[in-house]
Amino acid sequence: MRKKHIFALIILVLLALAIWQLPVKTYLEQALLWVEANQGLAWIVFGVLYILAIVLLLPASLFSLAAGYLFGLLQGWLLVVVTATIGASLSLLVGRSLLRGWVLGRARDMPNFANLDDAVSKKGFLIVFLTRLSPVFPFSLINYVYGVTKITPRDYTIATFFGIMPGSLLYVYFGTTAKNLQEVLSGNVETSSGQQWFLYAGLVATLILTIVITRIAKHALIQAAHIEPAPGVEHEPELEPENKNQTEQQTQ
Question: Which residues of the chain register pLDDT less than 50?
Answer without folding.
Answer: 1, 227-239
